[in-house]
Amino acid sequence: MVETNLLKLNFNDKDFSHVRDIRESVFHDELGISKQELFDKNDELCDHFLIFDGQKIVGSVRMLSMEKIVKLERMAILKDFRTKNYGRNCILQLKEYYSKIGFSQIILDSIYSVREFYKKCGFIEEGNVFQRVGIDHIRMTLTF
Ligand SMILES: CC(C)(COP(=O)(O)OP(=O)(O)OC[C@H]1O[C@@H](n2cnc3c(N)ncnc32)[C@H](O)[C@@H]1OP(=O)(O)O)[C@@H](O)C(=O)NCCC(=O)NCCS
């Protein structure tokens, strides 16, 4: 089992620069999403997490709280570290953390082609496929 550690930070932390680098590499360079779409006003409201393997940064994700529900967004594992369980371990830890502080559900809008990953983390699909930034997405939920 790979070691997976999460470091929680906010938009004003100097380490937020790592989140910028990861989003640019994964969402802009790889997926071709425009740079203007990579950041928005919610970044100032969200909890951000850097994902580590014990030493190196392997990815990042942000969580937007809405009453008893928290929305997982901008999940990204750097290419060299994929399919090694960092993504799943991260989601398991987020589930434990948000459950302990009183949340009962994680929702997310999955890129449609990635939905099997979230299913393997326990999420179920909800509703219809929709487009965002020119890419098919679907709402998924995990209730605990
Ligand atoms: C999607 C992503 C976060 C998955 O992270 P990861 O660390 O590679 O995933 P894991 O290694 O924890 O995979 C857990 C399981 O999901 C599967 N899986 C991972 N990515 C998958 C994908 N894109 N499609 C289908 N299954 C996938 C793995 O094979 C593994 O299955 P197993 O239990 O049968 O072994 C990562 O591939 C990524 O950052 N992709 C680019 C950005 C992106 O699409 N983000 C999601 C935005 S909604």
Can you put this structure into words, describing what you see?
This protein is of the alpha+beta class and 144 residues long. The protein has one domain: 3-Layer(aba) Sandwich (Aminopeptidase), CATH 3.40.630. It is built from 3 helices and 7 strands, in the order βαβββαβαββ. It has helices at 16-30, 86-100, 115-120; strands spanning 5-9, 47-52, 57-66, 69-77, 105-111, 124-132, 135-143. The chain has a 7-stranded mixed beta sheet with strand order 1-2-3-4-5-7-6, sandwiched between helices. It is globular. The structure holds coenzyme A (COA). Coenzyme A (COA) is lined by residues 26, 75-77, 82-88, 110-111, 114, 116-117, 120.
Task: Tell me briefly what this model is.
The chain has 144 residues and is an alpha+beta fold. It contains three helices and seven strands, in the order βαβββαβαββ.
Residue runs with pLDDT of under 50 for 5 or more positions: none
Predict the CATH topology: Aminopeptidase
Number of H- or I-type helical stretches: 3
CATH C-level label? Alpha Beta
Main β-sheet description: 7 strands, mixed
C-alpha-based Rg, rounded: 14 Å
Number of domains: 1
What class, by secondary structure content?
alpha+beta
Shape: globular
Let me know the number of strands. 7
Name the helix and strand elements from N-terminus to C-terminus, one letter apiece. EHEEEHEHEE
Side by side, the strands of the main sheet go 1-2-3-4-5-7-6
Beta-strand percentage range: 35-45%
Ligands present: coenzyme A
CATH architecture: 3-Layer(aba) Sandwich
Terminal residue distance = 24 Å
Helix content: 25-40%
